[in-house]
């Protein structure tokens, strides 16, 4: 009985990370920072080349528009269709948190 309880507790603990949702900062670092910069200013080689917006100042887009661009791409930005809806939502929230 103790073994079964231990296995159940282990499964619950292992799966609990998914229940808390995606980590926007980690997703940003992995997928976005190389162009948009760690801080969202866009002061990277690629960011300068593409003339990216400074997300710490200007965020004149809706959450739905941001989610659409993340999922489907726009202009020279590639699509991130592999990201789950929770990941996209976490990224949009993270972008919003960059504004000072």
- The counted number of beta strands is 0
What is the helix content?
55-70%
Q: What is the terminal-to-terminal distance?
A: 54 Å
* Rg result: 17 Å
Instruction: Quickly give the structural class.
Output: mainly alpha
* Order of SSEs: HHHHHH
- Give the overall shape, derived from the CA principal axes: globular
Taking all residues together, what is the mean pLDDT? 85
Number of helices: 6
Which parts are unreliable, with pLDDT below 50 for 5 consecutive residues or more? Answer: 9-20
Can you tag this structure with a few keywords?
single chain, 100 residues, mainly alpha
Brief characterization of the structure:
The protein is mainly α. It has helices at residues 2-19, 24-31, 33-36, 45-50, 63-72, 85-98.
Characterization of this structure:
The protein has 100 residues and is mostly helical. It is 60% helix and 0% strand. The chain contains six helices and no strands. The chain has helices at 2-19, 24-31, 33-36, 45-50, 63-72, 85-98. Helix 5 (63-72) crosses helix 6. The longest helix is centred in the first third of the chain and has 18 residues, at 2-19. 17% of the residues are buried. The model is unreliable at 9-20 (pLDDT under 50).
List the helices and strands and how they pair.
Layout: H1 2-19, H2 24-31, H3 33-36, H4 45-50, H5 63-72, H6 85-98
Helix pairs in contact: 2-6, 5-6
């Amino acid at each position: 009985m103790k073994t079964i309880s231990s296995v159940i507790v282990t499964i619950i603990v292992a799966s609990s990370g998914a229940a808390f949702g995606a980590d926007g900062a980690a997703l940003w670092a992995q997928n976005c920072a190389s162009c948009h910069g760690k801080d969202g200013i866009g002061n990277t080689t690629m960011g300068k080349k593409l003339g990216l917006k400074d997300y710490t100042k200007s965020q004149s887009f809706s959450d739905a528009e941001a989610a659409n661009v993340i999922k489907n791409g726009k202009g020279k930005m590639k699509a991130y269709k592999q990201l789950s809806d929770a990941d996209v939502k976490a990224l949009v929230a993270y972008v919003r948190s960059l504004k000072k």
